[in-house]
Design brief:
Order of helices and strands: HHHEEHHHHHHEEHEHHHEEHEHHHEE
Number of strands: 10
Number of domains: 3
Shape: globular
Distance between the termini: 53 Å
Radius of gyration: 26 Å
Helix content: 40-55%
Amino acid sequence: MLSEIKTRYSQSLKRSKTFLKSQKTTPKSSSITSTRELCLLRNQAECPICAIKFSGKNHNTEHIHPRALGGLNDDENKIQMCTACNNSRNLTMQSMLGNPPYYKNYQSIKADVDEFILWSEVTADEGFLAGAVFPRAQEIFTEARFANTEPPMPKRAYGRFSTWDKDSLPNLKFNQTPIRTSPIEHNQSKRKIGLVERFFDKLFGYEPKKPEIQIKQDKKELPEVIQRNESPKQASSKSKPSTTEGKVKSTDTKSEGSEGAITTEKQLKNDVLTDLSQFKMDIIMIVGSKKLSNDDLGRAIQKWMIERGYENYNPTSFLRLHNLPRGLKKALQTHCSDYLNISGDDIWHVDLKDELVVQHRKLESEIKWKLEKSDNEAIPLKDFWPIVKDLKESSGLTWNQFMEKFGLKNTGEMGGVAIKSKIICSTLAIDVILEKKGKEHFVKYSSSD
């Protein structure tokens, strides 16, 4: 199998070798078009690696063969993945190859480069389980993305951009459930087949024996809910056809079709609102209590994206992440004027309005006082977090309201106290960081030893 994979992706291996030896510049990237993205949302598409349903800004365009290793910026080399899988693939590459530019160490990492490229290509085309052929890359990614647990197989995933367009249905061959499947097939009593067995059946082209009852697959005879590309489970809950002598009697689902269209439209509107809400939170976190020039803001956005593992880290990519068009200043003026001051023309500045930075100023004052009192010029996390709690109590705000002032949500989504403390420190105008020494965390000035 390994030799077959090497043969299949031999052009990618040759391309990376030529690229890294010639020390060429990484080509510019482009993301998914709005028409393709709408196709994903309308067809309830899932991540081809982990099966998470795409919605709002939870997905990115992945260059399967990374551009930093010679991959091209064309539709043949692009696939849409959830942001978590996209980030974990970037982390896997960095764990195996170190930091770019990779041509500097190419001779010593050539075998690792080839392994990563082959793993990346085969998992995009054949699914996550196919990566088991390359145990090192598979283990790093599995730990980073799934904490060493096995993810579900996708049912409604799309492949490389070159294999589909705006009118296509989910088309990856390892999709677990066919897009147009007769409801009667799901009622057949079958032996339960394990996930790994199902995958290799798909990979090697094994076709299970068809039921003896022949069912017409004509579009007119299928319930409309299935024609709209809903999953069989959703379809069967809305329309229960009966069978007589092998024929399917479809029910009238016209009303359900109208409701489905309305629901989809509402969902798309909700996705847009979610994007704008997250955009606001992220801007609040990035700007914090600082006053930033347009250049400073660009660097702050770049740092924010690098820390979160994004492959493309610039203001345009940041806007695209929130489903917004190019033009950072215009986006801020359009969507952030209620909480952000924007001044200047060619060289412009931004800062949060005074009511949003009240807690920042109080916390900055407390930190300065504590650090002056500290012999080690550091505040243990166990002493820092009570300061935050006291500020919250005196503010009269709920935890959600208080944390939103720092661009955070009061959920487990952002991690524990240490991660939240690190983010809060990054929003302050004073230059403090959260640093780990041994098993403990400390808040200190970033310039101190």
